[in-house]
Design goal:
Helix 8 packs parallel to helix 10 and helix 15 packs across helix 17. The chain contains 34 helices and 15 strands. Among the domains are: 159 residues, no CATH class; 176 residues, no CATH class. The longest helix is centred in the N-terminal third of the chain and has 47 residues. Strands 11-10-9-15-14-13-12 form a 7-stranded antiparallel beta sheet. The protein is of the alpha+beta class. A hairpin with a 5-residue loop joins strand 14 and strand 15.
Length: 771
């Protein structure tokens, strides 16, 4: 069973990797529906893979290796049992040492135990995931029961129009929820569309856009594929690749539905405006895992870029094509499931010119991510804009790999927005020394002068920037380096500010590295105004990497920490000491004056909740006493537990002593269940001598019940354990007192015959003195 699990994990990883390659090939010219088909087949493939591994006959795949050993079949059981090593000639049975059979048996037993544990862990994970799916399905049914049917309202006519427009052949139920949820669709036999309670206030255009999107889900049977993805995640709960494939399928599913809505005649700008407003108005709403929802804020960027891309392929593969592709993929999966690799040795001289010569040193990893290269190659990225009530705007750029960057506020923003029914649709530009960002998309005003916006952007490098950099003594930057510099606005103003603050002149590669690490002009100026001029750009990069910002330094100064060195700032930040922590300590009467004291206090886990809790329990300690109590494990729960057993109002030194000796709530409670209720001093003594609940129970099982703690301690000190008591009983002495057991144990290691003789002599002496 464990071998089958290992083979399923390996071959499912191969299947997901193949799907990722095909997805990458379809990224530029293929449609979202085609990519969704790829991931649907991959999810279905991992579900049927275990069946194929059991049912399909195996075939051998011979792999040549440079070795003189015999062919080695790469069965999963061999892989899981031991590593493949070059074996020496096997000794005969007469020459083989006696201990070899024992070690082999022991190893096999250990492997069997580990395999059984792995199987039980896997089964437990599957059960938990299936329970989660059942709860999600129950949540979806609860939503339907709490909703209002809209079949007799003015929504009915609009629903019929949209059904005919998308040619959906299914009986669709439309309901309205009782709260502000996100529009969603669930159900496979009778698909149900649920709209939020605020849907009655929508315009007809927004209602139509929502219904078209949800009907696209129904026409594509996305609820069924979502159910399959949930089942795959339950079966492969341990496999991150399956979870990633399910997320990719969900993303392409939403874009494919958007493509259907746009292909049906909806204006992209209007539809993008509706989608943007729905995404941000439904922030915080969550749909059940088995439902498909319309607007997830986390996916809004990529979808808006796809909607506004006029040159995008929005086609859907015909049904016959989808069936042929699925059949071919199913056959390929069956072949992979049946394959079994076998290593076949070849001569060393034949491999010297092939295998050995083909080994090249590993390529040096590039420090520039693929997302930046894609922008430079002409691909579009995405942007988001937020305007708060005080007029502060935040603009964030994201590339195709998901890496996000906030543009510095020093960039000049130029452009004009054109009003449409879906919001403001237009372009604007952000100009930098190294190039210009052109932004296209939707801008939606909100209440109280707030606004949100999103769309796509492209980058155009400056034609004069390279020559000006050469004129200043720098190397000529590439287009990629121009994009990286423009992204952080590291231009001529930044270079001049470095010179003004006395920094050593950096080379071009150092400037580019600073931009990648998030160094900005505002950070340089802010730190310089507070007296931190680090002389080297590398030190500035280190400062940014550790999260030391001008705001961080300013807050520390307000809290009383002034004249800190640059190294002290790094240490303070790394240990989690900020202005809020200093103020919390001061609010409790602790005047922390030095950096070292603040770091030491933080490292020992002293926070305001711990201090307040101690004071509520009557402890007013100094900072040093508080650190000592924390170091010894005296927390609030420990103090309350002891008080619950009647040990209240103990001074802190006694609490520390009790904790150090291992007397806790579990120990006290277990002994009280056995009938021992005594002082803390007696409990500490018993704990120190090794008298624990398991020892007391074991002796009681041998017939020694109701012993006092003093008797138990004496027995433990003399080495009287349950095994020794059982051995004594086997000699025939079943009525030995605790003192008898101690006397026998003190005589040293005796054989059973000598123990019996000693006991008889002891009984004879007792009877003699009794007369």
């Amino acid at each position: 069973m464990s071998a089958l699990l290992l083979e399923v994990a390996l071959k499912s990883s191969l299947l997901i990797a193949a799907a990722a390659v095909v997805d990458l090939m379809l990224r530029r010219r293929g449609s979202a529906a085609s990519r969704h088909l790829v991931w649907t087949i991959a999810i279905g493939g991992v579900l049927v893979l275990p069946v194929f591994l059991v049912a399909v006959p195996r075939w051998e795949l011979r792999v040549p290796i440079a070795s003189a050993a015999q062919p080695i079949a790469l069965e999963p059981s061999v892989i899981s049992a031991r590593p493949l090593i070059a074996s020496a000639p096997r000794a005969t049975a007469a020459d083989e040492p006696a201990y070899r059979d024992h070690s082999t048996a022991t190893a096999g037993h250990d492997e069997l135990s580990l395999a059984r544990i792995a199987i039980w862990m896997y089964a437990a994970g599957v059960v938990l995931m299936l329970v989660r799916l059942a709860l999600q399905q129950r949540a979806a049914r609860r939503l339907v029961r709490a909703s209002t049917d809209l079949s007799g309202s003015d929504w009915a006519g609009l629903l019929r129009e949209c059904v005919e427009r998308l040619d959906v052949h299914a009986r669709v139920r439309l309901v309205r929820g009782c709260d502000s949820t996100v529009p969603m669709t669930f159900g496979t036999r009778v698909p149900t569309i649920l709209v939020p309670a605020a849907a009655d206030t929508w315009s007809d255009e927004r209602r139509r856009a929502v219904l078209l999107h949800e009907l696209a889900h129904i026409g594509r049977r996305d609820c069924a594929t979502q159910m399959g993805a949930a089942a795959a995640c339950a079966v492969y709960w341990f496999h991150p690749g399956v979870w990633w494939a399910a997320s990719r399928m969900r993303r392409e599913r939403e874009i494919a539905c958007d493509d259907r809505v746009v292909a049906a005649g909806t204006q992209p700008g209007d539809y993008a405006g509706h989608l943007l407003e729905l995404a941000y108005s439904c922030t915080g709403s969550r749909a059940p895992a088995l439902a498909v929802s319309m607007a997830r804020p986390s996916e809004i960027e990529g979808r808006l870029r796809a909607i506004l891309d006029a040159a995008r392929n929005r086609s859907t593969p015909p049904r016959r094509t989808r069936l042929w592709i699925a059949a071919a993929a199913l056959a390929a999966i069956a072949i992979v499931a049946a394959a079994r690799a076998t290593l076949v040795p070849v001569q060393a001289q034949s491999t010297r010119g092939t295998l050995l010569d083909s080994q090249q040193p590993p390529a040096t990893p590039d420090r520039v991510d693929n997302g930046a290269r894609a922008i430079v190659d002409g691909e579009s990225g995405t942007w988001q804009l937020w305007v708060s009530e005080d007029g502060t705007a935040r603009l964030r750029l994201s590339d195709r790999d998901g890496s996000s960057y906030s543009l510095d506020e020093s960039g000049r923003v130029e452009g004009q927005w054109h009003t449409s029914s879906g919001g403001a649709l237009g372009t604007m530009s952000v100009t930098r020394d190294a190039g210009t960002f052109t932004l296209e998309g939707v801008f939606k005003p909100g209440p109280r002068k707030t606004a949100v916006g999103a769309g796509t952007f492209t980058f155009a490098p400056s034609s004069t920037f390279p020559a000006e950099m050469v004129g200043r003594g720098y190397a000529r930057p590439t287009v990629l380096e121009q994009y990286l510099l423009a992204r952080s606005d590291l231009g001529f103003t930044f270079i001049d500010e470095l010179s003004r603050q006395g920094y050593a002149r950096p080379d071009l590669s150092t400037l580019v590295r600073a931009s990648e690490h998030g160094v900005t002009l505002s950070h340089l100026r802010g730190m310089g105004e507070m007296g931190y001029r680090l002389q080297q750009v590398e030190a500035l990069i280190t400062q940014v990497d550790h999260g030391v910002s001008p705001d961080f330094v300013r807050e520390l100064r307000d809290a009383g920490f002034r004249n800190m060195s640059a190294d002290d700032l790094l240490r303070t930040r790394d240990h989690g000491v900020d202005a809020g922590y200093i103020k919390d300590l001061k609010s409790q009467g602790f005047d922390v004056r030095s950096v070292d004291e603040a770091i030491r206090t933080r490292d020992h886990g002293i926070d305001v909740d711990y201090i307040r809790g101690l004071r509520q329990l009557g402890f007013r300690l100094s900072l040093e006493e508080t650190v000592t109590a924390r170091d010894h494990g005296v927390d609030l729960g420990y103090i309350r537990d002891l008080a619950g057993f009647g040990y209240a109002n103990l001074p802190m030194p006694e609490l520390i002593r009790t904790r150090d000796h291992g007397v806790d709530a579990d120990y006290i409670g277990a002994l009280r269940q056995l009938g021992y209720q005594t002082s803390l001093a007696a409990l500490i003594t018993a704990r120190d001598h090794g008298v624990d609940p398991s020892y007391v129970r074991a002796l009681a099982a041998q017939g020694y019940k109701g012993l006092s703690l003093e008797q138990l301690i004496r027995l433990r000190d003399h080495g009287v354990d349950p095994e020794f008591v059982e051995r004594v009983k086997k000699t025939g002495l079943t009525t030995a007192t605790p003192d008898d057991l101690i006397t026998i144990r003190d005589r040293g290691p005796l054989s059973d015959r000598l123990v019996a003789t000693f006991i008889d002599e002891l009984n004879r002496l007792k009877n003699r003195f009794a007369r």
